[in-house]
């Protein structure tokens, strides 16, 4: 089963194949943890988000259409779970008093704060109207801060394709927002 690609594994997971899920997890959890840690310095939250990500994958794999790279879909699920977790954390009542060592050691990045806040409704709608492959490129290059080369490797497409999709996505967003 190790020679099966991620798209096929997702299809099998959608059919309830636990072995395919185990392979998908073993293959993708390490890089997901690394990417989540780049955006969130709280290791407990990263573990929670990883667990929620794969729970979502187990439940939603049957709905995966296979119209983009599976790794892009997995990352979009993980990024969504991270945003949800940050929103939940912001909604919790804050204690009053001197900050503990844990609070001082961890503070959200500017990107985390932006992502935890509500997107402008028009921008959010425009992003959701983008084709999945365009949205995946924007997520990789804009939200994750990957270079074109890194995004190409992650998405499994040539660098020129990443550049073209990024240009198309930006053009479509400009048109949708004007």
TrEMBL record:
RNA polymerase sigma-70 region domain boundaries: 24-89
GO BP, sorted A to Z: DNA-templated transcription initiation
Residue ranges of every copy of the RNA polymerase sigma factor 70 region 4 type domain listed in the record: 122-173
GO molecular-function terms, A-Z: DNA binding; sigma factor activity
Gene3D superfamilies: 1.10.1740.10, Winged helix-like DNA-binding domain superfamily/Winged helix DNA-binding domain (1.10.10.10)
SUPFAM superfamilies: Sigma2 domain of RNA polymerase sigma factors, Sigma3 and sigma4 domains of RNA polymerase sigma factors
InterPro entries listed in its UniProt record: RNA_pol_sigma-70-like, RNA_pol_sigma-70_dom, RNA_pol_sigma70_r2, RNA_pol_sigma70_r4_t2, RNA_pol_sigma_r2, RNA_pol_sigma_r3/r4-like, WH-like_DNA-bd_sf
CDD domains on file: Sigma70_r4 (cd06171)
Domain of life assignment: Bacteria
This protein's UniProt keywords: Sigma factor, Transcription, Transcription regulation
Keyword DNA damage: no
Family membership: Belongs to the sigma-70 factor family. ECF subfamily.
Stated name of the protein: RNA polymerase subunit sigma-24
Organism: Micromonospora inaquosa
């Amino acid at each position: 089963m190790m020679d099966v690609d991620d798209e096929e594994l997702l299809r099998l997971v959608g059919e309830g194949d636990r072995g395919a899920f185990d392979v998908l997890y073993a293959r993708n959890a390490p890089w997901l943890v690394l990417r989540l840690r780049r955006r969130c310095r709280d290791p407990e939250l990263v573990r929670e988000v990883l667990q929620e990500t794969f729970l979502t994958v187990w439940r939603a794999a049957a709905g995966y259409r296979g119209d983009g790279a599976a790794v892009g879909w997995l990352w979009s699920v993980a990024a969504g779970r991270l945003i949800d977790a940050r929103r939940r954390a912001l909604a919790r009542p804050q204690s009053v008093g001197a900050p503990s060592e844990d609070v001082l050691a961890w503070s959200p990045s500017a990107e985390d704060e932006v992502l935890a806040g509500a997107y402008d409704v028009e921008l959010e709608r425009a992003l959701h109207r983008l084709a999945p492959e365009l949205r995946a490129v924007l997520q990789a290059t804009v939200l994750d801060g990957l270079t074109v080369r890194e995004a190409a490797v992650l998405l499994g497409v040539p660098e020129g394709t990443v550049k073209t999709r990024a240009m198309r996505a930006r053009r479509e967003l400009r048109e949708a927002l004007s």
